[in-house]
Design brief:
Strand content: 5-15%
Distance between the termini: 79 Å
Number of helices: 7
CATH architecture of the largest domain: 2-Layer Sandwich
Length: 135
């Protein structure tokens, strides 16, 4: 007796791997289908990075744990839609949280000057040429 996941893997192995372009097209179609029911979530998922990491494995990149927690209960439903639409019963998704590094805001005059020097190192030489000017 064969397991349904073994059958899905066997069927998926005979199909060519899904391309990034195909996945993106089916992802957009899924978002359009979900838009009326879940407008806020679909807006957050719009434009999210999808990375193919295997034959039938992709990663959905999100930038916080809150969004990950919102997606997890819907993941089975989303994957069912994508599997049927792509004709890939073994298609699978992993949610990856990648935190965005926030830049520090320069508040003081010295911090602002340091930021400008990082962007244009010649500014430091200019300051040395004119020591009487306080930057």
């Amino acid at each position: 007796m064969t397991n349904s996941s073994d059958l899905a893997e066997t069927e998926s192995a005979t199909l060519p791997p899904i391309t990034q372009q195909e996945l993106a097209e089916h992802w957009q179609a899924m978002l359009e289908a979900m838009r009326a029911e879940l407008p806020r979530l679909t807006a957050q998922l719009e434009g999210r990075q999808l990375r193919m990491v295997g034959h039938n494995q992709f990663e959905l990149v999100v930038d916080n744990n809150f969004l990950e927690a919102e997606i997890k209960p819907l993941l089975v439903r989303m994957l069912t839609y994508l599997r049927q639409r792509c004709h890939r019963p073994g298609l699978n998704c992993k949610i990856v949280v990648e935190y965005q590094k926030q830049q520090a805001v320069a508040y003081t005059a010295r911090e602002k000057y340091d930021v400008m020097v990082r962007q244009n190192p010649q500014l430091d030489k200019l300051r040395d040429l004119f020591p009487e000017i306080d930057l």
